[in-house]
Design brief:
Order of helices and strands: HHHHHEHEHEHEHHEHEHEEEEHEEHEHEH
Strand order of the largest sheet: 3-2-4-5-7-6-12
Helix content: 25-40%
Protein name: 3-methyl-2-oxobutanoate dehydrogenase (2-methylpropanoyl-transferring)
GO molecular function, one term: branched-chain 2-oxo acid dehydrogenase activity
Radius of gyration: 23 Å
EC number: 1.2.4.4
Catalytic activity: N(6)-[(R)-lipoyl]-L-lysyl-[protein] + 3-methyl-2-oxobutanoate + H(+) = N(6)-[(R)-S(8)-2-methylpropanoyldihydrolipoyl]-L-lysyl-[protein] + CO2
Enzyme class: oxidoreductase
Distance between the termini: 42 Å
Strand content: 15-25%
Length: 416
C-alpha cells in the first residue's frame, strides 16, 4: 500500500530523481525535500563522515621541517628548500625534471601538449618542444602501443591515459606486450642500447583514477586490482604530492619494469603540502609506516589514507588503543615483509581501498596475512572497500569507504 507521500509525487517528479539536469515540476513541499539534492554529501551534524580538512591532516607535510625530515629523502634534498605544491603541481615538477635531466624522456597523450585535462603537463610542451611533449589521437590502444615500441627502442616513454576508466582498450597491449617483453627477451636488459636485448623499462602509463563525487560510470573507476594479476608490471598509487614526485621520478628514470602510475584525481588540487625542490627518488614496492601503533594495523593506499587517518584518530580516542597506519604505495608487487611484520606485532588488521572488494588488493593482502600471520592474529582481517557494483551518479559516496565504515572495522577487530 502506497504512503501519502509517495502518492503525492507525480510520475514526472520521479523522473527528476534520475534526470537531475531537467527542470523540476512543481511538487508538494514534502516531496520536493527529497528532490533538492540528487548527489551524495556528508550528512548534517555528522561526527565521523565529515569533509577532510587537508590543511590539518597529519597525512600531509604542512611545514618544510616535517617534509625535509623524511628519512627516505637523499641528503641533497634534506638540505634544500621546499615549495607548497598541490598533487598536480608535484607531478608537473617530476615530469619537468625527468624531461630536463634525460633527453630520452618523452611525454604524450590526449591533450598533453595543452597541459592535460587536469593541467599536470602545463607549459612542458613550450619548454621542451613538440618533439618530446605532444598530443596523440584519441586511441588508448595506440597511445600505449606507441609507448611500448618507444620504450623497447631505448626511450623513456611517459604515456597519459586521460582517465583510468578508458584504459581497457589498451589492456591487451599492457598485459600481452609490455608486461611480457623482458621475460620474452630472456634478459634483464635496459633498452635497445644494451647488447643483451631489449625491455620496456622506462614505460610509465599515467592515469587519473577514483571517484570525485559526481563522476558516474566512466569517470570514477579505480581498476588497479586488474593490473595486479599481471607479472611484469608495477602498479603505483601515491597518497600525496611529496610521495607522487618521488615515486614518479623513480618510475620514469629507475624502474626496469613498465609502471602503471595511478593518480587519485580527487587529490589533484585538494592535497597541498611542502615538497622538496631538489629531485629525489622514493623506492617502489616498499610500504611506509605512516603512523606507528601497537594494537591494530590499518593498511591502505591513495585517497583512502585520509579517511583511515581520521578513523584512527576517532578510534584511538574512543577505545584507548594505538593504531598503526601503513601505506602500500606500490600495490603490485607489494611489500609483504613489512606488512606482515606490522600485523605480527599488532595481531589485528584492517585493509582499506576504494576499488571493488571482490578480488581486490585487500583480498590478496588478507590472504597473505592469513598465511603468514595466522598464529599471531587476534581477529579476522577486516576489509573495507568499494561495493561490487558500478558507480552511479547518484550517491556515489555510499559505494566507497568512508570514515564511519573504517571506524566500525577497527572496533570489530578490537572487540572480537
Amino acid at each position: 500500500m502506497s504512503s501519502p507521500l509517495s502518492r503525492s509525487i507525480s510520475k514526472s517528479s520521479l523522473k527528476c530523481l534520475f534526470h537531475p539536469i531537467r527542470a523540476r515540476p512543481s511538487v508538494p513541499l514534502a516531496a520536493s525535500a527529497l528532490l533538492v539534492r540528487s548527489y551524495s554529501s556528508h550528512p548534517p551534524n555528522a561526527r565521523l563522515n565529515i569533509p577532510t580538512d587537508y590543511s590539518t591532516t597529519p597525512i600531509l607535510n604542512h611545514t618544510s621541517s616535517t617534509a625535509l625530515s623524511n628519512p627516505e629523502l637523499p641528503e641533497s634534498a634534506r638540505r634544500g628548500s621546499t615549495s607548497r605544491l598541490t598533487l598536480h603541481q608535484s607531478i608537473n615538477a617530476a615530469l619537468s625534471h625527468a624531461l630536463r635531466s634525460n633527453e630520452s624522456v618523452i611525454l604524450f597523450g590526449e591533450d598533453v601538449a595543452f597541459g592535460g585535462v587536469f593541467r599536470c603537463s602545463m607549459n612542458l610542451a613550450n619548454e621542451f618542444g613538440s618533439d618530446r611533449v605532444f598530443n596523440t589521437p584519441l586511441s588508448e590502444q595506440g597511445i600505449v602501443g606507441f609507448g611500448i615500441g618507444a620504450a623497447a627502442e631505448g626511450l623513456k616513454a611517459v604515456a597519459e591515459v586521460q582517465f583510468a576508466d578508458y584504459v581497457f582498450p589498451a589492456f591487451d597491449q599492457l598485459v600481452n606486450e609490455a608486461a611480457k617483453w623482458r621475460f620474452r627477451e630472456g634478459t634483464n636488459a635496459w633498452g635497445a642500447k644494451d647488447k643483451e636485448g631489449r625491455s620496456c623499462g622506462g614505460l610509465v602509463v599515467r592515469m587519473p583514477c577514483g571517484g570525485v563525487g559526481h563522476g558516474a560510470l566512466y569517470h570514477s573507476q579505480s581498476p588497479e586490482s586488474l593490473f595486479t594479476h599481471v607479472p611484469g608490471l608495477r602498479v603505483v598509487m601515491p597518497r600525496s604530492p611529496l610521495q607522487a614526485k618521488g615515486l614518479l621520478l623513480t618510475s620514469i628514470l629507475q624502474s626496469n619494469d613498465p609502471v602503471i602510475f595511478m593518480e587519485p584525481k580527487a587529490l589533484y588540487r585538494a592535497a597541498v603540502e611542502q615538497v622538496p625542490n631538489e629531485p629525489y627518488f622514493l623506492p617502489l614496492s616498499a610500504a611506509e609506516i605512516v603512523k606507528p601503533g601497537s594494537d591494530v594495523t590499518v593498511i591502505s593506499y591513495g585517497k583512502p589514507m585520509y579517511d583511515c587517518s581520521a578513523a584512527i584518530a576517532a578510534a584511538e580516542k574512543d577505545f584507548d588503543i594505538s593504531c598503526e597506519l601503513v601505506d602500500l604505495r606500490t600495490v603490485y608487487p607489494w611489500d609483504r615483509p613489512r606488512v606482515m611484520e606490522s600485523v605480527n606485532k599488532t595481531g589485528r588488521c584492517v585493509v582499506v581501498h576504494e576499488s571493488m572488494v571482490n578480488a581486490g588488493v585487500g583480498a590478496e593482502v588478507a590472504a597473505t596475512i592469513q598465511e603468514g600471520c595466522f598464529l599471531r592474529l587476534e581477529a579476522p582481517v577486516q576489509r573495507v572497500a568499494g561495493g561490487s557494483t558500478h558507480v552511479g551518479l547518484v550517491y556515489e559516496r555510499m559505494n566507497m569507504p568512508d570514515v564511519a565504515r573504517i571506524y566500525d572495522a577497527i572496533r570489530k577487530a578490537i572487540e572480537y
